């Protein structure tokens, strides 16, 4: 198998010049560049990408840690990162964890072995104290706020959005308000949802809180529980428009009218929510992902807040 020394000999140039051509270095004459490329073609040479990455000092590849794929919220952040990767000529490696803390640390170690230039964390299972040491080896960008100086972040103010969401329902005459969550109290966003609810309504009745909701089917299941209660909620704040759509479908199957019998508020402005006219809290997660990628390639430790918005439709 040919190597760069064989290429150099064939082209009548130095090995350094061959290396410069392989790395698209601008300080090579057109004549020498043509000679090297002709020699590469004649010898059927395939560059060793790992070697080139070591020479260049970067892989042009960013890792994105996501707990789950096929989840609208994480998919939106990933979509934002992919938008920017195409724009800047980078590749994206998707790193699913299922909230496995050990797997998350294995992915972070890819910075140490120079397999990635940077890592974006859309949601984490480890404490920051276990994550921050890896910033020695490359940029780590969070999609939630952290005050750790070593970590850049692109984030939205989830707590403020939850308070605004519950106030919206209260201002529309609702006091019996239920809500759904993805994870339990080990999740920061779930804790923030509980706290926001308490600030607006007081402590939520335990039967008004349904966890493990990720999909349309989960929303349907949640509605079966909530709408069979003796004291039915008059409004439900779902942790995703897909979940809200499942609630909508079950409510309609009972002959209920949205919003006269039940008000619905979802999250993330997803296509299903648009189709069913569901009001939503849009955390603009595509923009969060885009900004996170920008911070990653700039090796920035800035804290950039992305504004959320509440989109009013016919479900309230």
From TrEMBL:
One of its GO terms (molecular function) is DNA-binding transcription factor activity. Keywords: DNA-binding, Transcription, Transcription regulation. It comes from the Bacteria. SUPFAM superfamilies: lambda repressor-like DNA-binding domains, Periplasmic binding protein-like I. Signal peptide: none annotated. Pfam families: LacI (PF00356), Peripla_BP_1 (PF00532). This is LacI family transcriptional regulator. PANTHER family: CATABOLITE CONTROL PROTEIN B, LACI-RELATED TRANSCRIPTIONAL REPRESSOR. Residues 2-56 form the HTH lacI-type domain.
